[in-house]
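Q: Structure tokens for this one, please.
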Amino acid sequence: MLVLDPEVVKGLQPKPDSAVQRLTPRLIEVLTLIAQGYSNMGIARELNLSEKTVELYISLIYQELQLTGASNMNPRVRATLRYLGETQGDW
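A: Here is the predicted structure, written as tokens:
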């Protein structure tokens, strides 16, 4: 599992014209929590959502970031790495 310091993740902002920037603010919230190591249940609790809604949001994130193809890497890790690769920090 890939877990990042929440303070580091909070300082990240999507770079202009990145796939991450095309995500809605809610999807970015979910992706940020994924990067912090939250489980689906943890994300649901943190954002007052059902786990089914979180699953839908994660599916939308994977689609928007084009992470739906076959890979040996866990899609949550791929999404986090994509997020980090397309953001810039203020830290």
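A few notes: The chain has a mean pLDDT of 79. DSSP finds five helices and two strands in the chain.
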